[in-house]
Amino acid sequence: MLVLLKAGTPEAIASDVMTRLRMAGLAVHRTDHDGVTRIAAIGEAGAVKLEEVEKWPGVEATQKLSRPFKLASRLFHPHDTVIQVGRCAIGSQQIAIMAGPCSVEGEAQVFTIAEAVAKAGATVLRGGAFKPRTSPYAFQGLGEEGLKLLRRAADAFGLAVVSEVMDSQQVGLLARYSDILQIGARNMQNYALLREVGHIEKPVMIKRGLSSTIEEWLLSAEHVMAQGNRRSCCASAASARSRRTRATRST
Question: pTM here?
Answer without folding.
Answer: 0.84
